[in-house]
Amino acid sequence: MSRKNLTVITGYYTRRGGIGESGDFVTSPEISQVFGELIGIWYISEWIAAGKPKAFQLVEMGPGRGTLTDDILRVFKQLASLLSKCDVSIHLVEVSPKLSEIQAQMLTGGKVQSNPEDKSVYMKGISKTGIPIFWYRDIQDVPLGYSFYLAHEFFDALPIHKFQRTDKGWREVLVDIDPEVPDQLRFVLSPSSTPATQNFIQPEETRDHVEVCPEAGVIIQNLACRIEKGGGAALVADYGHDGTKTDTFRGFRNHKLHDVLSAPGTADLTADVDFSYLRKMTQGRTATLGPIKQREFLKNMGIDLRLQVLLQNSRDTATREQLLHSYDMLMNPKKMGDCFSFFALLPHHRLARPDKKHKPESESPLPPVAGFSELLLK
């Protein structure tokens, strides 16, 4: 970790007042807010490593209720003096009208303008901290430029193709009506190879069952092109594996496992993200880091240090218990600690300097990327 990056990170966690001088964060803490803080710090760290560009866009894909962006904005406010000469803007890619309303309420207090004439930006506003926010339906509508991209629990919700290896070669897993129970659906294998089988199965594939998300591939290609041209970085946090798992498609309803084919449209359907596929789909345009387990990433980002500061500032037992419970949820390997992984796209020059015949002796080493290398406190 470079000294500048280390100073920002350690100084931030050990600040006695916590988030905001009023100490709001300490009086009603929620470790999920610390999660957002750490991601905000990661982007600031990469901004410093890039030489503090004069402007950056924070682009979140599928921002949910806007909680994560809200936590990151609080970090940016806390570090306002550091960002004083930087033009920061927020760009949210959201297709749901209902969720965009919830996001607008959380981030701006509902003070937004609809933009029906503009085909790309359908809504805009100013955050409670004074930063402009724009809403889009597609990542391709977001302006090019130095940008930090965020996809938290985004890729796992995209549709997948499923394939099964058979004696006759690869077959696609399809959905059909069960002839014995007419109001129920069932999985069947395609009688022959399908176009998807021919396009999405790699010749070197060793697994017998594979899930492929072509839409994720297209989005990653887009992000890699944007980072290659405009600079920046992308951080992906999701359920996932590195090309090792097979059948991960599942449904959740009321926080319980639910048959994916039962009562379509009433459950949350998800499949683990194949990070090896995402890496492949960058097509070498960017460097990649990870996947690394969530507990390792957060530990490297200094969550233990931040937790100690919050516990020291907690005045009641209930608050302390809530902090420890939430920390356990994020870090316990049997809970979210090992289920979630972090994965990053970065420009090649961020990890390795371009080849030069005569390397200057005075050239300083490139700072390690926060979260993906151990945080050493000096």
Indicate the topology.
Elements: H1 3-14, H2 24-27, H3 31-49, E1 55-61, H4 67-78, E2 87-93, H5 97-108, E3 112-114, E4 121-126, E5 132-136, E6 147-152, E7 161-166, E8 169-177, E9 185-189, H6 195-200, E10 209-212, H7 214-230, E11 232-241, E12 250-253, E13 256-258, E14 268-270, E15 273-274, H8 275-281, E16 287-293, H9 294-300, H10 303-313, H11 317-331, H12 333-337, E17 340-346, H13 348-351
Parallel strand pairs: 1-2, 1-6, 2-5, 6-11, 11-15
Antiparallel strand pairs: 3-4, 4-5, 7-8, 7-10, 8-9, 11-17, 12-13, 12-14, 16-17
Helix pairs in contact: 1-3, 3-4, 7-8
Summary of the model, kept short:
The chain is built from 13 helices and 17 strands.
Could you please describe the fold and organization of this structure?
35% of the residues lie in helices and 25% in strands. The protein is an alpha/beta fold and 378 residues long. The protein has two domains: 13-160 and 213-351, Rossmann fold; 161-210, no CATH class. It is globular, with a radius of gyration of 22 Å. The longest helix is centred in the N-terminal third of the chain and has 19 residues, at 31-49. It has helices at 3-14, 24-27, 31-49, 67-78, 97-108, 195-200, 214-230, 275-281, 294-300, 303-313, 317-331, 333-337, 348-351, and strands at 55-61, 87-93, 112-114, 121-126, 132-136, 147-152, 161-166, 169-177, 185-189, 209-212, 232-241, 250-253, 256-258, 268-270, 273-274, 287-293, 340-346. The protein contains 13 helices and 17 strands. Strands 1, 2, 3, 4, 5, 6, 11, 15, 16 and 17 form a ten-stranded mixed sheet that branches. Strands 9-8-7-10 form a four-stranded antiparallel sheet. The chain has a three-stranded antiparallel sheet with strand order 13-12-14, with no helix packed on it. Mean pLDDT is 89; it is low at 9-30.
